[in-house]
Amino acid sequence: MIRLLLVDDQGIVREGLRSLLDAKPDLEVIGEAENGQQAVEQAIALQPDVILMDVRMPIMDGVAATRTLHEQAPHLKVLILTTFDEDDYVTRAMRQGAKGYLLKDTPSNELAEAIRAVQKGYTHLGPGLFDKVMTATPAAPPPPPEINELTPRELEVLQLIAAGKSNREIADALYISERTVKNHVNSILKRLNLRDRTQAAILATNLQSLKTE
């Protein structure tokens, strides 16, 4: 029996996935989480065989959760299941330790096969996603000039976002309130013209890469 943890911020999606997967004789859903932070906590507590992880979620997104799990429990296997197939999501998720990446329109039988493959240690990518990973440029782009407008505190917050930290963890690390962290995050996204925390984490990771070259 392959034990599964479902991670998605939409309850109706988790309910549908549970119904589909529990119908398979060799699959069993043992837990659910609605954001990345809960996913990390549940995964470490329940030790599932495969974690089905969405990407865009509140508090901590799926890519950051995947990175955290890869660092804290590298034996756990993450299979990304999302509606987003942008290059940066696919490549970053795989670089941060995901064993597979599928879109939510994947037929249930193919999803089950992907789960079985990942559980056995194979990597599984949905149609067309392999090309996105292979054609992604390995060179880090130069940092935007707006990076110089960030305050020292905002740069600290940005580095902690790249480390996969949630707002609460950032607040604890910097001895500030979660509200203050949220304000810093919003300021960072606005100044750098970024869509979400995932793009911020990608930028911070690229900055670190440039420093080490």
TrEMBL record:
Modified residues (4-aspartylphosphate): 54
This protein's UniProt keywords: DNA-binding, Phosphoprotein
Domain HTH luxR-type: 143-208
Example GO biological process: regulation of DNA-templated transcription
Protein name: Transcriptional regulatory protein DegU
Organism: Acaryochloris thomasi RCC1774
Keyword Metal-binding assigned: no
Listed InterPro entries: CheY-like_superfamily, NreC/VraR/RcsB-like_REC, Sig_transdc_resp-reg_C-effctor, Sig_transdc_resp-reg_receiver, Tscrpt_reg_LuxR_C, WalR-like
Taxonomic lineage from the root: Bacteria, Bacillati, Cyanobacteriota, Cyanophyceae, Acaryochloridales
Keyword Phosphoprotein: yes
Domain of life: Bacteria
Gene name of the record: degU_2
Residue ranges annotated for the Response regulatory domain, each copy included: 3-119
GO molecular function term, any single one: DNA binding
